[in-house]
Design brief:
Blueprint: H1 17-25, H2 27-69, H3 93-122, H4 127-130, H5 138-146, E1 162-167, H6 171-182, E2 191-193, E3 207-208, H7 211-222, E4 228-233, H8 239-249, E5 253-259, H9 264-274, E6 279-283, E7 301-304, E8 307-308, H10 311-325
Parallel strand pairs: 1-4, 1-5, 2-3, 2-4, 5-6, 6-7
Antiparallel strand pairs: 7-8
Helix pairs in contact: 1-2, 5-10, 7-8, 8-9
Amino acid sequence: MPVEATATVEKPRTPDASERLAGAYNPHTAAQAAERAAAERPAAAAATERAAADRAATTAAAAGAAPAAGAQAAPAAPASPASPASSASPASPASVAERAGAAPAVTEKPERQAALGRRLQSLGVPSDIAFRATAADTYTAVVDAFSALPLAEPAPDGPGETLIVVGESTHAVDVARWVAESQRLDTSHILFAGRNAAAAGIDPKRRITGAHDARLWAKKLRKSDSPSVVAVEAALDESAWAAAIVEAVRPVAVWVVVDASRKTSDVAHHLQGLRRVDAICLRGTLSSGDPASPLSLRLPVALLDGRPSTPFQWAAMLCERLSLVG
């Protein structure tokens, strides 16, 4: 590859301002300066001639090497030096201060969101829901996150349609009454499958004693001009008996009352024994350290503490709990 030779050309020395002023007012100094300039001109001319000769020799060498290069690609032209305008200039103190002040603001939001997600997880909210809470306001963040939850189908309200509510103690009766009142039904028409109808506040004549009795009632319910509600009393270890009642009645929907203070694994085993669950009714959130843990069952929530389950209801409950734990 040809090498481009360079030569340094010494320029004639230019007198500084003080010498020029002195020469203007002192004839002797001016004469001496003229002599020095005349002496330096031959040396500068000789240096210029040497540089021209070197460039001519380099050009001749490159011209002779070009045919021998054949199909070799021509060397890339040297990059032109960057202009002063394009070269990086040191940042001003103001811009450095602005960047230093803006860096914490950029990282503050992700850290705050992660902290909110961890706090929601501590209350039992599944991670895929907890870390959806990304809005600046906590309440709005929870509402947005819980908007992704599946919605429970409304209670059946057509003629001859039946809803079965399964729950411990009188919890099933409480939900059955809420459904009857919301549909403007006579609460005295609620059927009860359990041990003691009187203790549950139900007329003993409307008590279902077992699976055979449930099949007889089911025929009447299908011919009714209004929807019906059946409350089934069943503890966590009585899922087989409750499943027999459900199979005999063949309802349109099955809701199960879940106490938030119960172990989620025990509840999951109970639901598996029922063989059919369309939605859960969550209660007792105030007595639970992780009230949202039943969400890990991945079932729609129809009621939350006796009210329709909505993202706003969840946000109100969880924000209250977050304020208590700090």
